[in-house]
Design goal:
This protein has 93 residues and is mostly beta strands. Helices cover 12% and strands 57% of the residues. The protein has 1 helix and 6 strands, in the order H-E-E-E-E-E-E.
Length: 93
Amino acid sequence: MKGFKGLWHMLTDLSDDEQYPLIMIYRNRKITIEQVERLITFSPKEIVLLHGRGKIAITGKDLFISFMYNDEITLVGMIEEILFLSDKGGANE
């Protein structure tokens, strides 16, 4: 239970001064991410995006970009994993 409380605090105790990406996931087939600064890498197996707090890496199968506009992107395919990487490059916990 202690681990869950720490995770909940990390997810809900957000600073008003920082930008956090808005992520909407539709099953494991579609994901929309807002506040994207740049597309770093793209392949049918992995897509890496840069946002204000670091990077987001999405891995899966048959991934493709169905929509991209300014700071928003929608990806479609079989999504297997989503990793949030801090500015230092390590995975956030």
